Amino acid sequence: MTTRNSSIIDNEDTITEYKYSESNIASIECPNARTIANYSFHACKELKEIYFPVATRMGNDAFSYCKEIQKARFPEITDTGQSVLSYCSRLKIVEFPKARDIQRDALCQCIDLRVACFPRASTIGGSSFENCISLRTAYFPEAISMDGNVLAGCIELQLANFPKAVDVGAFAFARCSELRMVYLPESETIGWGAFFGCKKLETIVLPDSLIESDEITDEWKEQRGIRNETQCISQSDYLQSTMEEINSLIGSDIQIKDGDKKIAELLLLKNIHDGAFPNNLSDDEKRTLNGSCASDLYKIVSSIKDDDYERKKEWARVLGVKVEITKAKTENSGEAEDTEKATSIRQQLETIALDIELDKMITKCANPLHKYLSLKEMMRLEQISKTDDIGLPFNSERTIRENTLNEYKQQLDDYIQKPDKRECDLDIISKQVQTLFDAVRRSKKSPPTVGH
Questions:
Q1: Across residues 396-418, what is the average pLDDT?
Q2: pLDDT of residue 14
Q3: Is 417 exposed, middle or buried (0-12, 13-18, 19+ CB in 10 A)?
Q4: Contact 312/304 with Cβ under 8 angstroms?
Q5: Which segments within 76-198 are labelled E, that is strand?
Q6: Which of 77, 127, 377, 445 has CA atoms 20 to 30 A from the CA of 401?
Q7: Residue 117 near residue 97, CB atoms below 8 Å
Q8: Beta bridge partners of 167
Q9: What 8-state DSSP symbol labels residue 62?
Q10: Contact between 201 and 180 (Cβ < 8 Å)
Q11: How far apart (Å, rounded) are the C-alpha atoms in residues 227 and 210?
């Protein structure tokens, strides 16, 4: 038995069964642990935060009944184990970015948990989040199947987002009395009582094939607990209405092309997530919730080809990414007149600037704080409420390109503004900009697969 409020450093590669169970440790660092065995930290009532940077395997009830834990991060775990964090009543943030299987009862009765986002989980065991009464949104972009009672009793849940789920178990959303929207565009099977007690459910988005079939009858809806007032609509109709809403907001008509439906879908989900928490979502919770779908959004927009630049620029503007390489000012504060070639160079500079800004957003979404800050530094910043001010992880290559971009813009401005003091001609500037343009293109990563 350890002494009360002790801090432990364990350098072993395996945390054995019951090793720290029911102890009074307040914090622990396990930099080398790859396996966390059954019940290894069960009922550690003083433990407040856990971070296992290299662990890949986790046993059943590893942290169950650790009632003071508020944050849990497992960047390499692929299988959560059963009841792994069940009854952790103060848990607010949990990260399993690589978990593919969420075992039954994994986080049930975590009554303070507000955000559930498992970007790679394909299967979700029964009652995994049952009675998480503070949970308001759930996002599982890769989940194919979900067993019974997965989110039953989540009385604050407003949005359930399962864009790839094929099978939805019985009573999956039962007693979610605040649930307003469920996104199930691929679901072929929805179990009995799945929406029993969902008194405020307004919309369920279902596959086109299911809506067009004769299967959705009053009896079918009654068996699944769907109220008469609830609208069941097809994915196509829903995404079309989303595109119309986007167009009304930006005042222009974006023509739907390859990939745009995916952009609209992801944007819709991100906006709904943002709206679910008016002003009280912490920086970590925002990253946990929106990191996956937002990162894919920026990647898809970044992948739009340069011959469709205006569309790319418009979508970027919808996402809040705006760039403009303004013309140089004359001594009278008016815009200097560009030649045709100077205009072409300026447009290419703007294209480079847009790619750099999109790359920044992709990086920020894809890299949670703990990826580029030490745990102690992150905890220190969180204690003084400074995590919102943290910028991007340093990237020397991007910094050099930004500085080079600004240098070439200044050369172009000087060429236009000071015709009597030109140090280089437009051909040289054009070649330099083209070289930078090519370098940015080569550095771009492959975009995610665009589905329809």
A1: 82
A2: 94
A3: middle
A4: yes
A5: 93-95, 101-102, 115-117, 123-124, 137-139, 145-146, 159-161, 167-168, 181-183, 189-190
A6: 377
A7: no
A8: 145, 189
A9: S
A10: yes
A11: 18
Q: Is 145 helix (H, G, I), strand (E, B) or coil?
A: strand
Task: Work out the number of other CB atoms within 10 angstroms of the CB of residue 219.
Answer: 8
pLDDT digits (tens, 9 = 90+) for 25-46: 988 888 899 999 999 999 999 9
Q: What is the DSSP string of 192-230?
A: TTTTTT-TT--EEEE-HHHHHSS---HHHHHHTT--TTS
Mean pLDDT lowest among 48-52, 59-63, 318-322: 318-322
CA distances from 248 to 234, 236, 237, 331, 384 (A): 21, 18, 17, 40, 41
User: Is-contact 442 353, C-beta < 8 A?
Assistant: no
Using DSSP's 3-state secondary structure scheme, residue 161 falls into strand
pLDDT band for position 278 (cuts 50, 70, 90): very low
Question: For the stretch 265-284, what's the b/e string if a residue is b when 16 or more beta carbons lie within 10 angstroms of its beta carbon?
Answer: bbbbbbebbeebbeeebbbb
Yes or no: say if 25 and 8 are a contact pair by the CB < 8 Å rule.
Answer: yes
Candidate from 112-121, 223-232, 377-386 with smallest mean pLDDT: 377-386
Res 384: pLDDT: 47
CA distance 392 to 53: 20
Average pLDDT over residues 312-332: 71
CB 80 within 8 A of CB 62: no
In which band, very low, low, confident or very high, does the pLDDT at 276 lie, cut at 50, 70 and 90?
very low
At how many degrees (to 10) do helices 235-250 and 309-318 cross? 90
